[in-house]
Specification:
Ubiquitin-like (UB roll); 5-stranded mixed β-sheet
Length: 83
């Protein structure tokens, strides 16, 4: 299936691009994150399990156990604090 992957803020800066189209067989967001990390640097450090990230699928905040479907847009971004 084809997924639109969008990177925001520090994740975008680390990866060096705002978005990409990714072909995958991953059925969950967690599996997709691991697959992207397996590409090596800079994905490994930007999306690593030790990095606190927020995730959205089709503009809805989700947990990593959410299922993915062909054509979904997945966004990764660091948590935001306000003040």
């Amino acid at each position: 299936m084809q997924i639109q992957v969008v990177y925001f803020a520090a994740v975008r800066e680390a990866i060096g691009q705002p978005r990409e189209v990714w072909q995958t067989e991953c059925q969950s967001l967690e599996a997709l994150r691991q697959e992207l990390q397996s590409r090596g640097e800079p994905w490994r450090s930007a999306l690593g399990a030790d990095r606190p990230l927020r995730c959205a699928v089709n503009h809805n905040m989700v947990h990593e156990d959410v299922s993915l479907n062909d054509g979904d847009e997945v966004a990764f971004f660091p948590p935001v604090t306000g003040g």
